[in-house]
Recover the amino acids of this structure.
């Protein structure tokens, strides 16, 4: 799946089958369900990709201190790009990994 297909899947009521945890969380966030996205990540607190998405979600929430913690866990610098751009960057990177 590429980014265009991932974005198109947002028209569906449910996420595509087979999405990994961080991509599922991004999908749920894009559908406006921050709580479900955050809850989804709780199942994978050790993964760096999940930590990256977790950091992004806390930026969305406005909790920059918590976001900084998760960026560090992900091995990423704290982002200051617009949230939609960061969502796209993360989704594209995760989708490229397959």
């Amino acid at each position: 799946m590429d980014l265009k297909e991932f974005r198109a899947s947002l028209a569906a009521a449910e996420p595509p089958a087979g999405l990994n945890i961080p991509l599922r969380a991004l999908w749920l966030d894009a559908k406006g369900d921050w709580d479900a996205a955050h809850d989804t990540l709780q199942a994978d607190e050790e993964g760096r990709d999940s930590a990256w998405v977790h950091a992004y979600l806390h930026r969305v929430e406005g909790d920059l201190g918590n976001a900084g913690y998760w960026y560090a866990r992900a091995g990423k610098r704290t982002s200051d790009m617009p949230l939609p751009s960061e969502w796209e960057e993360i989704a594209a990177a995760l989708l490229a990994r397959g």
Observations:
- DSSP finds six helices and no strands in the chain.
- The mean pLDDT is 94.
- The radius of gyration is 12 Å.
- The CA atoms of residues 26 and 32 lie 10 Å apart.
